[in-house]
Specification:
CATH superfamily of one domain in chain A: Jelly Rolls
Order of helices and strands of chain A: HHEEEEEEHEEHHHHHH
Largest interface: A-B, 40 and 40 residues
Strand order of the largest sheet of chain A: 1-8-3-6
Oligomer: homodimer
Largest sheet of chain A: 4 strands, antiparallel
Helix content of chain A: 40-55%
Structural class of chain A: alpha+beta
Strand content of chain A: 15-25%
Distance between the termini of chain A: 46 Å
Shape of chain A: globular
């Protein structure tokens, strides 16, 4: 079950056998059915999560009590509430499985101990956060620039498999529109963007 | 001119004198008047920027040819187009000084050489990107949840000095509304949020 994680780390930061062993000893495997809650708002998030298989989402309840999904993570993505994790503040988010999922769990204390044993993993996580932050810069651009429909089209084109596998009401929430509006624009998906 | 940068690094990752010297030798100082362009869309971004003094902004031109600011950086913040930097792709953004600014410039090649000399700086940058990414997760929440007016009020309360020092049309662009709408909500700033 550590294969996906080790392969991912190797791609950015080659490890020897002893370093691989240190990684294996630092993570726990979590096998969860879909719709399992991993983190709730108000809790202190003390863990970083790597998705080996399945899909997770980060969401909150807006002022009207409606769920709003702000982020998804599929295979080979990391996800957590990084502010709660870094600043030891209660989380404002919920983290939940969207599908049956296999998740590699890295507790904060285990992470610090792992960095002591394998300092070069700082580089791996530096690269992960740099890429994730870069992606968030681009998302801000799309949010500012594209119409809701164009945003959906862009997202579908960039992540076609992903759009197929997640429930449509979650995708609608992530893109900031109603499930009805999403159905409407999906119905005319063969038409050119107006 | 290296004082602010070294102090900032020390806070997260203490350095000895030799390591400080390696940092000093790796950066260049850029002193720019306000409204100087540092990066243009289409160029390959090869540099990371630390603001010692002043203010920078990241922006793009939307489909209507209007500037949209997506990010600001004041003292002790890093800013760049991290996707262009990491993936060696042409940038989709412009980077410009908002005020007369002193900027510490770290070229990619110098950064890699610096990581070889002082590997612990991977930790410093890992922490910087983790925090920045955490902040972007919260920004996504506010963008989904708050009305435009509430977003402005929240932003003003969180960053009062910042709101005072940047031109209002840039703040309006960043928050996604017109300068006229911003003037209107600032005019009633002593009223409670409706």
């Amino acid at each position: 079950m550590y294969t996906a994680l080790l392969k991912h780390i190797h791609h950015y930061c080659p490890l020897n056998k002893a370093e691989e062993q240190a990684v294996i000893e630092s993570f726990n495997l979590l096998e969860l059915k879909k719709k399992s809650l991993i983190l709730e708002a108000g809790q202190f998030c003390k863990t970083n999560y790597f998705v080996s298989k399945g899909c997770l989402r980060l969401f909150f309840f807006n002022d009207k009590g409606v769920e709003q999904t702000t982020q998804f993570a599929i295979e080979n993505w990391w996800i957590s509430d990084y502010t709660s994790l870094a600043l030891k503040k209660p989380s404002e988010f919920y983290l939940q499985t969207v599908e049956d999922s296999s998740i590699m769990v890295l507790e904060s204390a285990a992470e610090e101990a792992l960095f002591e044993r394998v300092p070069k993993l700082e580089r791996y996580f530096r690269l992960m956060f740099q890429r994730a932050y870069g992606a968030s810069q681009h998302l801000a651009k799309y949010n500012h620039n594209l119409s809701r429909e164009a945003h959906y089209r862009h997202f579908s084109k960039s992540f076609p498999d992903f759009v197929q596998r997640i429930p449509q009401y979650m995708l609608a929430s992530f893109l900031g529109f109603t499930p009805e509006f999403l159905s409407k624009i999906r119905a005319k998906k063969d038409q050119p963007i107006s």
